[in-house]
Amino acid sequence: LTAYRAPGFKQYMVTAFKTVMDMWLVVIPVVMTVGTLATILATYTPIFTWIGLPFVPLLELLQVPEAQAASETMIIGFADMFLPSILIESVENSMTQFIVGVLSVCQLIYLSEVGGVILGSKIPVGLGKLFAIFLIRTLITLPIIVLVAHLFF
After folding, report:
1. pLDDT in tens, 90-138
2. DSSP H helical segments within 6-126, as ranges?
3. How wide is the angle at C-alpha 62 spanned by C-alphas 79 and 107, nearest 5°?
4. How far apart are CA 65 and CA 93, in angstroms?
5. Considering the entire predicted model, what is its pTM?
6. Where, by residue number, does the polypeptide cross the bilayer (predicted)?
7. Mean pLDDT of all residues in 68-97
């Protein structure tokens, strides 16, 4: 009986079109801005080096080679999924590259993608909660990824 009250196909298409236009005109510019600013900050400032310092002891405890270089990529994953992989390419150790690459995919909450869409939606989640979710996902998946890396490398 709910189907009788549902909007018709035409109304559905109009709503879908409005949603797509909203994404293109509102969310995508924010996503591009966040990604660009994060790239500039990562390239020309040491801010992500400083923010990543708390991860160095954890990475050393987990016996991750080149823990300092890997720590710099841990938080930047919050801004964009691809930046950690780009920044870790200069590291010679394949295990460290593997850990950073897999972690960047597992973190899942990126301001330049999913996070931007969530913040632009009606979901009652703020930036602080998104960052907390990001950190929790990082801390849960990091030991698992490192364990798998130690098995393969």
Report:
1. 899 999 999 999 999 888 777 767 777 777 778 888 888 988 988 999 9
2. 9-22, 28-44, 47-52, 55-61, 67-74, 83-87, 94-106, 114-120
3. 25
4. 7
5. 0.77
6. 23-53, 73-91, 98-119, 131-152
7. 88
Number of domains making up the chain = 1
119: amino acid identity, one letter: L
Q: How far is CA 2 from the centre of its chain?
A: 38
Residue 106's domain spans which residues? Answer: 2-152
Tokens of 22: 């909203």
Structure confidence by residue, pLDDT tens digits, 19-41: 888 878 877 787 788 888 888 98
Closest CA to 63 of 141, 124, 138, 149: 149
* Pairwise CA distance, residues 88 & 3, whole Å: 52
